[in-house]
Amino acid sequence: YIRDLGLTEYDAGVLTANEEISTYFEALITKHEPRICVTWFTVELFGRMNKLGINFENLKVSAENLCGLFDLLKSGEISGKIAKDVLDIMVETGEDAAKIVESKGLKQVSDVGAIEKIVAEVIAANADQFAKYAAGDEKLHGFFVGQSLKASKGQANPGMVNEILRKFKDSKK
């Protein structure tokens, strides 16, 4: 793993600790980039297992289901924040990622009109800060992105929020 996948010695040690873990990881990397798999597997999944006192033998999340979560993340259907929330549910229930996203209405919003409306509302609620931002105070960009994501409950596509916010700013020049 160290030579072939460029993993750290620590990560390789974790992933080869037992045959079940190694087999699970191998299933993940057949469909997704190894670095992403390592992070989500060793940090996110193992972290939740440790927190809940679940050992690997009792894990309800199959490699196929975790790949399904990666697919949703990679396609932009869900954000990283939402993916972590979905993983919480998956670890507890073993439910399929796509079903969780669908049943809980967690799909990332990528509709330009909907995001423009959210950004416009945030700007209207913070007119003084927006005037400073439009005048060149770039530090406020993060504030507006954060407020817009908060207003969308984390569902707005962050890249689109950035783009739309810049358009609003440019139209004020």
Short description:
This protein has helices at residues 2-5, 9-15, 19-29, 34-52, 63-75, 80-93, 97-104, 112-125, 127-134, 139-151, 158-171.
Write the layout of secondary structure elements.
Layout: H1 2-5, H2 9-15, H3 19-29, H4 34-52, H5 63-75, H6 80-93, H7 97-104, H8 112-125, H9 127-134, H10 139-151, H11 158-171
Helix pairs in contact: 3-5, 4-6, 5-6, 8-10, 8-11, 9-10, 10-11
Q: How would you describe this protein?
A:
This protein has 173 residues and is mainly α. The chain folds into two domains: 2-104, no CATH class; 112-171, Orthogonal Bundle (Arc Repressor Mutant, subunit A), CATH 1.10.10.410. 72% of the residues lie in helices and 0% in strands. It is built from eleven helices and no strands. Helix 8 (112-125) packs across helix 10 (139-151).
Strand content: under 5%
Q: Quickly count the helices.
A: 11
Question: Which structural class matches the secondary elements?
Answer: mainly alpha
Biggest β-sheet description: none
Mean pLDDT: 94
Alpha carbon gap, first and last residue? 52 Å
Counted beta strands: 0
Q: Provide the low-confidence segments as ranges.
A: none
Instruction: Tell me the domain tally.
Output: 2
Tell me the series of helices and strands, N- to C-terminal.
Answer: HHHHHHHHHHH
| Percentage of residues assigned to helices | over 70%
Envelope shape: elongated
Rg calc? 20 Å
